[in-house]
Amino acid sequence: MQVKITEQDDIVSISIEEERMDAHNSGDLKEQMLQLFDEGKCNLIINLSAVRFIDSSGLGALVSGFKNASAREGNLKLCCLQPQVRSMFELTRLHRVFEIFTTLDEALASF
Amino acid sequence: MSRRVTIDITVPNQTKYLGVIGRIGESLAYSLKDYQGNRRELAYHLNLVLTEALANAICHANSCDPDKDVRVLISASDQDLTIKVFDQGQGFDIEAVSRLKARTHDEGGRGIQIIFKLMDRVQYTREGNRNILEMTKYLR
User: Fold this and answer.
1) Of A57, A72, B30, B89, whose CB has the highest number of CB atoms within 10 Å?
2) What does the pLDDT look like over B68-98, one tens digit per residue?
3) Residues of chain B with pLDDT under 70
4) CB atoms within 10 A of CB A95
5) CATH number of the domain that A98 lies in?
């Protein structure tokens, strides 16, 4: 999975550079997040602005990241969801789990 | 009355084909001439249902065996749209899986539930040495 990783203070932003997050590429994101957790980085923002489609595997990868971040007393937040992607969080009620922000700046300011 | 469209595709049992098949469903939604509902939403839902059903066949039923194949049969008219996904696995109790409620912090277990939420009729049957996941959406 193509991602762009940037760091500001102790917050890591992962920008997904893919149109689809599905069972083909979501495992890669989980691996990349685990690597960050191993490095002690546990405050993450996932920027989904480029993602047009997400399936249950993509949602599962984000839940995995959220749980791992929480277990390390960090947090995983989401930003910049396209409307159809946002509707998937509502369909599965995961919008109650994640903090979701309209812009990256809002997400950064929330930590 | 418009003619029924049938699309019959067989792909290797590999997840890289999820996007290919999903996009076919999406395109089909835009080609339905008399559909009165939210076409953009239908396109997303068909993409999603095809992706979930195919991923289930590839990763679970066919155990990610790259030498197996997955067949997808889509049949659409102005009245309804039926998707059949054929796998070569052991099969499973889809009713039992659909009744399991994914807890909010579970990583998996949402795929079949999504299919049940978005489609009007879902059944999973065995025919010879293969299983067929059949999903229908009424368009009127």
Assistant:
1) A57
2) 999 999 999 989 999 999 998 887 888 888 7
3) 1-2, 102-103
4) 16
5) 3.30.750.24
Q: How many domains does chain A have?
A: 1
Across B57-105, the runs of DSSP E, i.e. the strands, are 69-76, 80-87
User: How many Cα neighbours within 13 Å face the side chain of B81?
Assistant: 22
For residues A37 and A72, the answer to whether their CB atoms sit within 8 Å is: yes
Domain range for A8 is: 3-109
Q: Which domains does chain B have, with CATH numbers?
A: 5-138 (3.30.565.10)
In whole angstroms, give the CA distance from residue B52 to residue B113. Answer: 10
pTM of the model: 0.94
Backbone angles phi, psi at B31, to 5 degrees: -95, -5
ipTM of the complex in this document: 0.93
Q: Which residues of A touch B44 (CB under 8 A)?
A: 53, 84, 87
Residues of chain A with pLDDT under 50: none
Note whether B92 and B109 are within 8 A (CB): no
Q: Determine which of B51, B63, B98 to mutate to test the interface with A (most A C-beta atoms within 10 Å).
A: B51
Rg (CA), chain A: 12
Cβ <8 Å between A24 and B102: no
CA dihedral A11, A37, A77, A62 (to 10 degrees): 150
